[in-house]
Amino acid sequence: MNAAVHADGLVKTFGQARALDGLDLTVRTGEVHGFLGPNGAGKTTTIRILLGQMRADGGQVALLGGDPWHDATELHRRLAYVPGDVTLWPSLTGGEVIGLLGRVRGGLDPRRRADLLDRFELDPRKRCRTYSKGNRQKVALVSAFASDVELLVLDEPTSGLDPLMEAVFNQCVLEEKRRGRTVLLSSHILSEVETLCDRVSIIRAGRTVESGSLAELRHLTRTSVRAELAGPAPGLAALPGVHDLTVEGTRLHCQVDGDALTPVLAELAAAGVRTLTTQPPTLEELFLRHYAGAAR
Amino acid sequence: MTGTWALIRLILRRDRVLLPVWIAGTALLPSSIASATLDLYADQAARDSFAALSMSNPAQLATRGAIYSAGVGGLTAWTLGSSLTLIGGLVSILLVIRHTRAEEETGRRELLSSGVVGRHAPLAAALVVVLGGNLLLGLLSVPGLSAAGLPAGSSLLFGLSIAGGGWALAAVAALAAQLSASSGTARGLAVSAGALLFALRALADAGGVAWAAWLTPFGWVRLTRPYAGDRWWVLGLLVAFAAVLSAAAFLLSTRRDVAGGLLPARLGPASGGPAGVLGLAGRLHRGPLAGFAVGFGLLGALLGVAARGLDAQLDTPQFRELAATVGGAGAHISDVFFTFMMYVLSQLVAGAALVSAVRARTEEAAGRADLLLSTPIGRLRWAASHLVFAALGPALLLAVLGGAAGLAYGDPVRVTAATLAYLPAVWTVVGIATLLCGALPRPATAVSWTALGLFLVIDLLAEFRLAEGVVLELSPFVHVPALLLGGDASPVVPLLVLTALAGGLAAAGLALLRRRDLAPST
């Protein structure tokens, strides 16, 4: 079994609303998998099904080789979860919560705990009611990173962290990956996903719209081309696969489909090139392209 | 105060069901009790003898106070004065905390305060709605009372007295909300203060220290004497009490940070914590349970002391007759007294048990169950960890209540046993709540409290013969044998039946919980 998570055609409805509408998701063992989608796309619902907190209305799902609903207790020994909106017991201190979660998960590494508290700059003596959202998230993160599990399920884990803490978080995830752990990371922060993830799945309205490595996904999208030319290139606008062309004197800027690059470069070369910059699509562009139709 | 109006509209929107139910439900009671009194005691002679009997019953004196006039109006005001203030006061306390401290604790207040909302606006909005609601229910009760043939002026005074009682306790809650950063602690403080003020009135009327009634809003509500001399100026005491406490609350709110409290927050241990899910439940339940235990212990001791002299003091023909009707020939007056009081107080214990019974649901709604249930803890173990406290908590409270009463009276074994007999009835309420949490998670908490409220109303209606037969049988408390009076042939059977019923309800609730999706409120 080399897939930590395998979901096929998941369906979940809440009354009239169809939260998941045939969602597919495969997370390979040992990879960091980015799970992207706009608000309300079904990311949290998917995670809740994977954690056995909800039962899917249709489709197949396997988590670490088991059924997330029926084998929940057994499977939970092998994973740690950080919710997107961490709520803790107001009267317990952060240190006590970390201790409690560690014990019920079957122990945690005290040296790693101390190291993580230090790196995340978290005071474990404070009561949870006094923690900010970011600090509550740190409590859940320290507890998850310090526990000895195969799979980490992180639901928008950095939404309350400041940029310095985000950097600490990124290091921690990379360390986990080096130890061979699998990470499912739901996120909005594209730079984070670009830095950390081996593969991503993009979902929209309860369906998976793209899935693959970043390189594969980029192949499907457009490259940004900027050039300063010696003379005019009149044929450019007519080429198939050229988009958003703007020309200011001898400078031009356009977006080019992956398979149309060769004729475009030939056309530019014919006109004479002084400078040329091409940029691979950022994840942001990729993301926006898929979400453009999502606004309802 | 900027933004107060917007916040008032928000509160009205959030409580659009609760507020009308509370106001309309309470406003309808006085006129129905008035007409029931007229039906039951048709002529003045019947009313006089009923009043004389009631005045000789210390349990009645403790719960309702003195009867100032044996007319229909006087009896109605006596029947409802204390209980409507209790209900209105409790609703007012819960509402004020819900819209002030609870909002701060969850962080929603921060969101609003960053908009154009003045520092005092949240407290002002909560008070306007709650004080307005009390006033409205007081005024709405007047037409019904007039229609029942009672003088309009006195009816208005009665309505305003009830409203004033609600105002006083709303102000107590406003003050408590400033003191602690935890809404649970604030709620506990306000309810304890309310219980103390009620106990003071009970002691004044049943313990023969009448002047003490002038020290508490529960006393003032009766001392306005509607239909018995109409002392309007006593309303001023209620208004002044509410005004002073509210002003203090506003003053304190300027001296603290948003989400901060006046009681200091201290640092705690850096590691350790509960050993497991049962340990966690213990941490969550122990505070409220300890508070309730102290409260019921004090109340029990008070009852025991009050009951001591009763057998000699109340050796009147009327009371012997009452004791004989209720408990059979030769029944001790103190036994009748304890039987009455434990019946009423066991329902308060059920309220305390309900707090524990819906705790698992509260944890789920707040999203705290998500994190815990992502660990190898199964749902049943988690739910059971809370249910243990909902089952053993009331056993402890009833034992403390009965034990304290029995020790103070001098007959601990019998009184404790008679009090503990209510445990299966309390468990039934816990079972109902557990079933609801499994079947209908979102409305479970509200519906559970409503069910307990219905049992209380059934008792009140039964007393006036407005509910009979099957309806009366619905309340589990009705089925508890009065062990002190020893009338029942086999007291064990109903207790076993209730216990089995409670167990069945809870088991069904747990089975449903295992099968359904978790339902956080967000």
Element-by-element helix/strand order of chain A: EEEHEHEHHHEHEHEEHEEEHEH
Rg of chain B, nearest Å: 23 Å
- Give the ordered list of helices and strands of chain B: HHHHHHHHHHHHHHHHHHHHHHHH
Q: What is the residue-averaged pLDDT of chain B?
A: 86
Low-confidence stretches of chain A: none
Task: Note the total helix count of chain A.
Answer: 10
The portion of residues forming beta strands of chain B comes to under 5%
Q: Reading side by side through the largest sheet of chain A, how are the strands ordered?
A: 5-6-7-3-8-9
Strand segment tally of chain B: 0
Strand content of chain A: 25-35%
Sum up the overall morphology of chain B in one term.
globular
Main beta sheet of chain A: 6 strands, mixed
Choose one word for the global shape of chain A: elongated
Mean pLDDT of chain A: 87
Query: What integer value in Å does the Rg of chain A equal?
Result: 23 Å
Oligomer: heterodimer
Q: Helical segment tally of chain B?
A: 24
Helix content of chain A: 25-40%
Structural class of chain B: mainly alpha
Major interchain interface with per-chain residue totals: A-B, 44 and 36 residues
Structural class of chain A: alpha/beta
Task: Please give a structural write-up.
With 296 residues, chain A is of the alpha/beta class. Helices cover 32% and strands 30% of the residues of chain A. Chain B is mainly alpha-helical. In chain B, helix 19 (379-409) packs antiparallel against helix 20 (412-420). The chains are: A alpha/beta (296), B mainly alpha (522). Chain A binds chain B through residues 48, 51, 53-55, 72-74, 76-77, 79-81, 83, 85-93, 95-101, 103-106, 123-127, 129-130, 133, 140, 153, and chain B through 105, 107, 181-182, 265, 267-277, 279-280, 283-284, 287, 366-368, 370-378, 517-518, 522.
